[in-house]
Amino acid sequence: MANFEEQATQTLFDKNYITGEQFEAIRAYRGLNLFSVHNELKFLLYLSMLLFTSGIGILIYQNIDTIGHTAILGLLLLVTLTCFYFCFKNHQGFKKEEVPFLNPLYDYLVLTAVILSCTFVGYLQFQYQTFGTHYGLATLVPTIISLFCAYYFDNKSVLSIGITGMAAYLGLSVDPKHVFENEMIDNTYLSYVGLAFGLTLLLWVLYTTKINLKKHFNLVYLTFSLHLVGIACMVNLCDDYWLPFGLVLAIATYYFYNLSFQIRSISLFIFTVLYGFIGMNIFFVRVLDSIHFDDFFSIFFFTTPFYFIGTIIGFIKLIKHFNKNTSDDSIR
Amino acid sequence: MIAYDKTLLDNIYIDEEANRLKQSGFISTEQYKLIHSQLQKLKSQNNLFIRIGFFILGCMLYSSICGLLSLLWLGICDSVFVNAGDRNDAYLFIVYILSIIGFGSKEYMSKNMKYFGFGLDDAFILGAILALLIGIGLTFEENYNPNYLAVILVMAIASSIAYLRYLNLSLALLACFGITASLAYMTFEYLTIGKIILPFVMLLFSGGSYFISKKALQNLTVPYYYNGLKLAKGFCLILFYLAGNYYVVRELNFSLSENYFYDDVSPEIPFALFFWAFTFSIPMVYLFFSLKNKDRMMLWIGFLALCFAFFTFRMYHHVLPPEVALTIGGLIVFAFTYFAIKRTKHNETGLTFKVDRFTNPNAFANVQALVIASQFGLKPEAKVEESPMEFGGGGFSGGGSNGDF
C-alpha cells in the first residue's frame, strides 16, 4: 500500500517547504514504526476508575443494612486515605503554574480519592446528620476538598467537580446532563443566582490571570461561566422582563467574543457565537411579537431564505476574523 | 469523476500533512503558516463543531428554500389543475425539482465556490438525496404501501455516485448503509428461507467486502478515496461482528417473527453454540490482528465488540449482581492496564506506551472532565431524592436503618 502521508511529506520536500534535515528526521521517526497505545491504556485506566467507583457506590447503597454503617464508613475512609497518601507522596507540592504528575496513573488516583471522599461526606451526613440541618454544609465540605485537591494536584476533572459543588451550594445543578435537559434553571430566582455565579467565576478568572495562579484552569472556569450566563439570559429572554437581559446577553457575548481571541479557544468562540445567535433570534421574535407582526406573517416567510443567507455570510466573516486575530493560523 | 479541481484537492492533503508535522513538532508554527498561506486549496472546515454549525445553517437554508418554492408551487397548482390526479402529479414534480436544486447547488459549490467539506455543501447534498428518496417513495407507492426496496436501492446508488464525485465521508457512510440494507431486505423479503440464512448472508457479505476494500486500499495510488475505503473497512468489521453476535441474531430473529406482537420471550435460536463461540472469539481475533497489523481502528472496534460480548452474556446469564460485576470488572481492568503499561513502557519500536508524536496525547482530556462532571457532579440538596447515587438518600431509610444504630 502506498503510504500517502509519506508521499505528502515527499511532496512538501520536493516543493522546498521543508528542509532536508527535517525530512530525514521525519523519515527516521516514521521508520520506527511506532504503534502507541498510550491513549488507549489511559482510557482503560479511566474506565476502570469509573467502573470501580460506580460499583462501590451502588454496593454501599444496597448493602447498608447488612454490613453496618461503621464498617462501610471505616472502609471508605481507609480507601480514601490510602489514595490520598499515595497522591501526596508522589506529588511535588503546590506551585502556581502547571505541575502534572510524572505518572498519569496518579491523576486518576486523585480523582478516585475525591469522588470517594464526596461519597463519604454524603453518607456521613445522611446517616448521622453530622451537619444537622445545615444541608448546605454537607455540600460545602466536599466542594472545599475538591477545590483544594484541584489546585494542589493540578487536576481539571476535580476542578469541575468543585465548581458543580459550588453551584450546588447555591441551588443550581450545572452538570452537563441537567444543562442539556434544560433543567438547570427552572425559576426566575435561580436564573438570577446563575447569572451572578457566572459573573463571579468570570471575575475570579480575571483575578487569577492577574496573580498568575493556575492559568490553565481559566478555560474550565470560562466555559462554566459562559454557559451559566448564556442560559440564564436566555431563560429570562423568554420571560417578562426580557429587554434588560437581552442587553446583558449582548454585552456578555461581546465580552466573551473578545476573550476567546485572547485565550485562543475555539470552543469558547463557538459557544459564544451560538448563544449570541440564539439570543438574537429570540430577541427578534419578542420584538416582532410585541409590535403585533402577525398580519405580515406571509411576507416574513418569504424573507427567511435571505435571512439565512445573510447569517451564513455573517458566520463566515466571523470565522475569518477569528482566524486572522489568533496567531495560530487556522482552526483545527 | 471527481468534481473538484485536482491541484487544489491535492493541496488539501499536503496541507493536512503539514499540519500533522506541525502538531508533532517536526516543523515550526511559522513554517506551517508559510506553507498554509502559499498553498492554494479548496475551502474546507477542519473544526468539527464549526462544520456542524454550518451544516445546521445549510439545512435551514435548504429547507427554507424548499418551503418557499413548495408554497408558491402549491398556490399555482391549486389554481391551474382542476383534476385531482393531475394535481398529485404536479405535487410530485416539485419534490424532484427540489432534489435537483440541491444537487445543482452542491455542484455549483464544489466547482465555482470551491467548497469541500465546508458544512454547507454537506447539508445541500444530503438534503438533495433525502428529497430524491421522498420523491421515489411517493412515486412507487401503491395503495399507501411504500416500496421500501426501491427507496433503499436508490439511496445506495445515489449516495455511492455522489461519494465518488464529491468525496464527503457522510455520503460514504450513507452508501454503506444503503447497500447493506438493500441486500438484507432482498434476502429477507424475496427468499423463502431468507429469515434463516440472513445472518450467514450478512457474514459472507461483510467478510467479502472487508477483503475487497482492503485490497482496494492496497492498490490505491491517489489519496482521494483513502478515507472512504477506511470507513468501509470499519463498517464491514462492525457489521461482521453484529451479524454473528448471539444477542443480535436472537433478538432480530424474534422481532421478525409473528410472536413478537404477543409479548413473548425470545426463543432459543438454532446453531446457538456457534453464535456463542462467535460472540466471544471474534473480539479476540480483532484485538490480536489489530495489534499485529498496527490497525488502530480495528483495535477500537475489537474493544467495543468485547464490551458488547460481555453485555450479551449478561443479558442471558445472570451470574453476578451488576454492582459486584462493576467493582470486580474495574479492579480487573485496572490490574490489566497496570501490567500492560509496565510491559510496554520501555519499548522503543513497535507496540509502546510512549506517546507517539503523531497522535494527540490530550485527545481525551477534555472529554474526561465533561464525563466526570456529568457523572459525579454534586447536585443541590433540594433534588437529593432523584439521584440514585452519591448523595442519593431516597432509599436508604428502608429497613430500619434510620433509627438508633
From TrEMBL, chain A:
Transmembrane segments: 43-61, 67-88, 108-126, 132-153, 158-174, 189-207, 219-237, 243-259, 266-284, 296-316
Domain DUF2157: 12-158
Keyword list, A-Z: Membrane, Transmembrane, Transmembrane helix
Stated name of the protein: DUF2157 domain-containing protein
Taxonomic lineage of the native organism: Bacteria, Pseudomonadati, Bacteroidota, Flavobacteriia, Flavobacteriales
UniProtKB/TrEMBL annotation, chain B:
Transmembrane segments: 48-76, 88-104, 116-140, 146-164, 171-188, 194-212, 224-249, 269-291, 298-317, 323-341
Region annotation Disordered: where it falls in the sequence: 385-405
Keywords, in A-Z order: Membrane, Transmembrane, Transmembrane helix
Residue ranges with Gly residues bias: 391-405
Protein name, as recorded: DUF2157 domain-containing protein
Organism: Flavobacterium taihuense
Taxonomic lineage: Bacteria, Pseudomonadati, Bacteroidota, Flavobacteriia, Flavobacteriales
